[in-house]
Write a structure and sequence with these properties.
Length: 188
């Protein structure tokens, strides 16, 4: 069995690589680069998606929510028993909640999220045995490329914002600017 990250097999790596592809697509569309993939109990692909709250004007359009929705719709069942969800970033409170409702069996994630993570960072929701469903959880798979995508995205966005602010300052000073501001859509 080939394994690049401890405790994960080559299938895990392949599925997380697909999730990373989706994350990269998100970045190209001005969305925070997080991607997710959902498999059925037999390891077949049910859904894949990336974050899309900006484009969808939808605060709940996290990658995990989108794969759960897609799969539930196509299976015509809101219970997704036996499924495995791969996501490039540690899920937030909302997404962990949705996974519990959907009865996801296993969660594999990449980088931890110190700002919003509800699995190991801010909260340890999946260790709370008051919930009547358990999700087998493993983190840290391909965490480095996931974190690099996020870091690069926010770095570019910060620079873009500075360029936008400078263009506004120039316009306000009566200096004609052909640069445009262009980054309003990124203000999520
Ligand atoms: Zn989320």
């Amino acid at each position: 069995m080939t394994s690049t990250d401890d405790g994960f097999d080559h299938c895990d790596v392949a599925w997380m690589t697909l999730a990373l592809d989706y994350a990269a697509r998100a970045a190209g569309q001005g969305e925070v680069p997080v991607g997710a993939v959902l498999l059925d109990a037999d390891g077949r692909l049910l859904a894949a998606a990336h974050n899309a709250p900006v484009q969808g004007h939808d605060p709940s359009a996290h990658a995990e929510m989108l794969v759960l929705r897609q799969a539930a719709r196509s299976l015509r069942n809101y219970r997704l028993t036996g499924t495995t969800l791969y996501v490039t970033l540690e899920p937030c409170v909302m997404c962990v909640g949705a996974m519990l409702h959907a009865r996801v069996a296993r969660l594999v994630y990449g980088a931890s999220d110190p700002k919003a993570g509800a699995v190991e960072s801010l909260y340890h929701l999946l260790e709370d045995d008051r919930f009547n469903h358990r999700i087998l959880t493993e983190g840290g798979l391909l965490a480095a490329p996931s974190a690099v995508l996020l870091r690069d995205f926010f770095r570019v966005r910060r620079h873009g914002k500075k360029a936008g602010d400078a263009a506004v300052a120039m316009a306000e000073a009566g200096v004609e600017s052909r640069q445009g501001r262009g980054d309003e859509a990124l203000q999520s």
